[in-house]
Hints:
It comes from Kribbella steppae. The chain is α/β, with parallel strands linked by helices and 335 residues long.
Amino acid sequence: MANLKAGLIGLGMMGRHHARVLASLEGVDLVAVADPGGDQFGVAGGRPVYENIEQLIAAGIDYCMVAVPTQYHAEIARALAEAGVHAMIEKPLAGSSAEATEIAKAFEAAGVVGAVGHIERYNPALQALRVRLENGDLGDIYQITTRRQGPFPSRIADVGVVLDLATHDIDLTAWVTQSHFAAVSAQSAHKSGRQYEDLIAVTGRLEDGTVTSHLVNWLSPMKERLTVVTGEKGAFIADTLLADLSFHANGTVATAWDDVAHFRGVSEGDMIRYAISKPEPLRTEHEAFRDAVLGKEADIVTLQQGLSTVRVAEAVIQSAAEDRTIKVAGESAES
């Protein structure tokens, strides 16, 4: 069987990483790239460099990786769907739920495969966490907290921290629990002089009753990517910067000191740091999409899931603006 012919549009920071992976992906030939600003980072590797999506489509590609700024997603996705080209679109799917809905409908009508590049799903720590939660290692899930903070990335100019970063946490929370967001309440801050928020603190509730908390900002000098899932049997901690997963078990040994036992509620048990395989998340993501294009069973982030994430992000932004809890609408999409 001939290799799939892939194209890439958008040659910025993420685009160059996508080019590296696509150029070495088994069963795929990266045949051309496109960016109106040219190949500033020299990632084309001798392949044709086009200016726009129409030229890239004309090169005869089977599928396309879209790594352009969010504001251009809908326009490019429309062109790809109309041309019958499969596509993976970098997160977020779009800057609004209206545009995300338009994209999802266009791909469904065209009968082509669409996916969203929510790369955190493919982090080895979260992949292992999802399996252990499904196996019941934690019992009932009570709470998920995430912290995603670090310095401001000057390359992001068209969205705030909610759509750029918090969408990671919205997606991974719904994915690891297999439950949608039911309501969110948020507070935001604007400290860097931009029109968009650069800090968000969100509390939420999932449809299964799980309580969530997400702290996301572009204002911290240190970089942190942490997910903590607390439940009936203890707590899992996933550090996605290091792809480490650990488990803190509730203790089974009674605490003799009455004052301490009364204060803690649960006792400290064993702590396990798991040895897990750590493939590159971006490569895993591309392998999954390649398989989906080939009609194989694959765990991709569907356009409907990407749409759900954008809806939650909009509810977060609305909550912060109106200083009230927002119920999340339209969360009946698949997860």
